[in-house]
Design brief:
Keywords: Membrane, Transmembrane, Transmembrane helix. This is MFS transporter. It is found in: Cell membrane. The chain is mainly alpha-helical. The chain has 2 domains: 395 residues, Growth Hormone, Chain: A; 54 residues. Helices cover 78% and strands 0% of the residues. The protein is built from 20 helices and no strands.
């Protein structure tokens, strides 16, 4: 870690980076490892595409909604305490998921797991921004980004091995070791929590956000089955929109909002989050569709379906920290523009997939191009968003950005049946590839139009 981050970091600062990586690793790994297990889950528990969507989105609903609340709690009561809460909750809910006998309990436990995960990412990244200052901060964030994003992308490989060789249930226990290691390392950390006195946590706002997102997602997922005219769809959609509007209205009035809307008055913060919305929607769609189609459509076993994304992981580990360093020196705008456009090309290459499936000729080129673009994008994007906000609000700034990325995935997975035409066959796979490419390109354009580099 000393070589990767830089010789000038102290031992305690290196420990901070390791803790931040492990804590975020737990959430990111679980969010992606499940994709390759979805076919096995639906075979054993039933429910088809709808069950698969809910297994993903139940986690994302609570993760997205409560991450904002967790950011405020992190700033108010301390990053280390909040991280401990998240780690313990994540471990317990993982055990329940592994033992779930039916889809209902599995989905409910996934929602609890998402709530626990919401307390991990903002507090872990805020530890870095608090303990490490520029110019080392950009490189530290680059290392954090490389390993946590690699976890998100390497998840399908680990999940595939577990599904093929053991059981999909054990997929959800992969995080036991990193959770235990992180809890132990926290005891070795000399830094202590700094709490902001007098801060009130907006629990009502958190509830409005969670219920609003949950109702809207229910309507989008169930709409292909029930139809727009069904009261079971129309009522949750309207109620969700009203609750979320009430949440935004409250954030303009409450003394300590969980979503400080004034942050969006900062140009780079606003533009970075718009780019995040497009880019992470594309990543979520791509990860879900590739993981499921390669098994159900191309007939690959789960392990080989997981191996499909390995080139992306390798390129992220090799290039992401370097991209973060160069972006800190040259500015982030060019990287945030070029990276998503390269990823758009990678997504478009999936249109070469045919019924006579050939991974090397049809999928591998896409993964290489996608991984290169992703390595160019993620570290500069994170540095742009967090670097635009003062360090005292790093917890909530990180929470907002991570919530935006999760909401992006939440919405696009909820719309999956509409995107693929109800079936994830070859035609649906191609439709998803087109939508993915468009979303990536929109992220690059948003970055070019919105982000501004600071004067040298």
């Amino acid at each position: 870690m000393a070589d990767a981050v830089g010789e000038r970091l102290t031992a305690q600062q290196r420990l901070v980076v390791v803790i931040a990586i492990l804590a975020s690793f737990v959430s990111f790994l679980d969010g992606s490892v499940v994709n390759v297990a979805l076919p096995a889950i639906s075979r054993e528990l039933g429910g088809g595409l709808t069950t698969q969507q809910w297994v993903v989105d139940a986690y994302l609903v609570t993760l997205s909604a409560l991450m904002l609340l967790a950011g405020s709690v992190s700033d108010a009561f301390g990053r280390i305490l909040v991280m401990r809460w998240g780690l313990v909750g994540f471990g317990v809910s993982s055990l329940v998921i592994a033992a779930a006998p039916d889809p209902a309990l599995l989905v409910a436990a996934r929602a609890v797991q998402g709530a626990a995960g919401a307390f991990l990412v903002p507090s872990s990244l805020a530890l870095i921004t608090t303990a490490i200052r520029p110019p080392l901060q950009a490189r530290a964030i680059g290392v954090w980004t490389a390993w946590t994003t690699a976890a998100m992308i390497a998840g399908p490989l680990l999940g595939g091995l577990f599904v093929d060789l053991l059981s999909w249930r054990l997929v959800f226990l992969i995080n036991v070791l990193p959770i235990g290691a992180t809890l132990w390392l926290l005891t070795r950390l000399e830094a202590r929590d700094v709490r902001r006195p007098g801060v009130r946590v907006d629990l009502v706002g958190g509830a409005l956000c969670a219920l609003g997102l949950g109702a809207g997602v229910f309507a989008l997922i169930e709409q292909p089955r029930l139809g727009w005219s069904s009261p079971a769809i129309a009522v949750p959609l309207v109620v969700g929109a009203v609750l979320f509007a009430a949440f935004l209205f409250r954030q303009r009035r409450v003394r300590d909002p969980i979503l400080p809307l004034e942050l969006f008055a900062v140009r780079n913060f606003s533009a970075g989050n718009i780019a995040t919305l497009f880019i992470y929607a594309a990543l979520a769609l791509n990860g879900f569709v590739v993981g499921v189609y390669l098994q159900q459509g191309a007939g690959l076993p789960a392990t080989l379906a997981g191996l499909a994304s390995l080139p992306v992981t390798i390129l992220m580990i090799l290039l992401s920290a370097r991209a973060g360093t160069l972006a800190g020196r040259w500015g982030t705008r060019g990287f945030m523009t070029a990276g998503p456009l390269v990823m758009a090309v990678g997504a478009a290459l999936l249109l070469t997939v045919r019924d006579d499936f050939d991974y090397v000729g049809q999928v591998l080129p896409s993964m290489v191009v996608l991984g290169t673009g992703l390595a160019l994008t993620v570290s500069p994007l994170t540095a742009t968003v967090l670097g635009s906000i003062d360090s005292e609000r790093s917890g909530i700034a990180s929470a907002v950005n991570n919530a935006v990325s999760r909401v992006a995935g939440l919405i696009v997975i909820a719309l999956l049946a509409t995107i693929v035409g109800g079936r994830l066959d070859l035609a649906g796979f191609h439709s998803a590839a087109v939508v993915t490419a468009v979303l990536f390109a929109a992220g690059g354009v948003a970055s070019w139009l919105g982000v501004r580099d600071a004067p040298a």
